[in-house]
Amino acid sequence: MKKILKYTAISLGMLAGLPACEVERLPETAISDQTFWRSEGDLKAASNYLYTYLPTFGTLTPQGYSSTYNVTYASEDVWSDDAFGLASSNISDGSRLAPATDANYTANYLLIRAANNIIEKAPRAAASTAQTIIDRYVAEARFFRAWGYYNLVQRYGDVPLILKTLDETSADLNAPASPRAAIFDQIYQDLDFAAQKLPTPTTLGTADYGRISNTAALSFKARVALFEGTRSKYHSYGEPTKHLKVSVDAAKAVIDSKQHDLYAGSYFDIWQLAGEGRQNRENIIVRQYGVSLTERVVTHSYYRGTLENGNMNPTKSLADSYLYKDGLPINKSPLYKAPVVSTDVFVDRDTRMSDTFMKKGDPMMTTKPIFDIAPLVFNKTGFMFRKTSNVDDWNTQASTIDRPILRYAEVLVTYAEALYELNGSISDADLDLTVNRLRQRGGVAKLTNTFATANGLNMRDEIRRERRVELAQEGFRYWDLIRWKTAEVELPKPILGNYFFKAEFGTVAAVRLTADNYILVQEASFRKFDPARDYLWPLPINEIALNPLLVQNKGW
């Protein structure tokens, strides 16, 4: 049985009365510091609160805080060309304005302050607690501080770097933004400390499953460094080689640790109860929900609220990314045949497509036990995601299935991409270590340098394709387009959906079609991306008003 982290804000006392626009202006209330920070139990209780900031299947509201934070899978995927919702996103259509407040900004500073508080005060437990124990919880705090700063710099670029708790009189409340290079250096320092001081997954075992391990710190470091290495490379700034080397080394350390492996069951079951817990060595970081409806931390209704109701629908662009079993894409494979019925789309394809997309005959929900075809009233693309669907969850609308946040599969594709970007090539041996293990899971032919050359394939594109399909519906695609500097090319394209199978779709909803009979969901004229502005998000206007040394990002 899986272990549940009991989340609590005990001892932190930071959140009451926080205005939404303010960062670090947090009164010290609740339990007195004079009666806390005395034992391992105190340190663990304080650290547990940090886990409430891990991404969720929905939005959360921190205790004592009026706004929600943490975007859902749906939010991030519909910003990209992988998915479309019931209506267009103001990110993908270029219509958003600089906001007065932004919970993504404020909540990450709340997390950073909570982490700083633990880092500063954990040593007070030294009289009764071993230094190794203190170091462990400081390491957890430094991991989450790195998590918060990565979320900030990924969106906003340069932001204030605050490494201590502040009060109303602190001069650092009006500190200017630090350069992103300095922030990444601090992130690496924090993650290195975490990797050195945290237990291995084996040491954590079942009892502490869900807590951050040393391989979690290394895996996240690989993710962070790949982002900055490729972003600096393709946006022409900084030291891309430095970051790519960091990513390669961190990912390889995880691989060499032998602490993780791909899940032995089906790809689909990774997001089901069968794939939960310590027995699934693919999971490196998870957001825990609970053991059952009677023993839970929190629940979600992601399936019904997001998939069935059409808040996130796969696009033709994503569907076309899945290879045929001969290892060739849809525009090159001789296995491709024009579809006649909806199930033809899945014939001879990477089996991960069938695990990610609903198809006729799949279990769906109690009132409609078997999926037929996506209703265009809700699923505007004529496709529906399947990856996280569960009939029992539809019944209860209170799922306790955990959310995988960082999987070993991501480490493998990160290693392959970082290695290729660093060296301009990748050996067949490294392809077998990474990409081909994932292709094998999908029943797809191996990728080799000879195969790519013989079939006119670009190795960089094939590695990126593998990342896209393996991590589909997990919120990566938008940020990948940002770091590759291809958002300006891909996001303004029209959104197309499934082939229109008239006999199956019927005429319940009005539909526009392309000349070759694909559903036209959104024309290119309604999708905009300004490369001079949109590669960074706008800083919240109220934050700039509070701190005159903050400078708004260009174009906002």
UniProtKB/TrEMBL annotation:
Location of the protein in the cell: Cell outer membrane
Which parts of the sequence belong to the RagB/SusD domain? Answer: 309-556
Keyword terms of this UniProt record:
Cell outer membrane, Membrane, Signal
Q: Does the keyword Signal apply?
A: yes
GO cellular component, alphabetical, reads:
cell outer membrane
Which residues belong to any copy of the SusD-like N-terminal domain?
A: 99-226
InterPro entries cross-referenced by the UniProt entry: SusD-like_N, SusD_RagB_dom, TPR-like_helical_dom_sf
Give the record's family classification.
Belongs to the SusD family.
What is the protein name for this chain? Answer: RagB/SusD family nutrient uptake outer membrane protein
The scientific name of the source species is Spirosoma validum
Mind giving the lineage of the organism this protein is from? Bacteria, Pseudomonadati, Bacteroidota, Cytophagia, Cytophagales
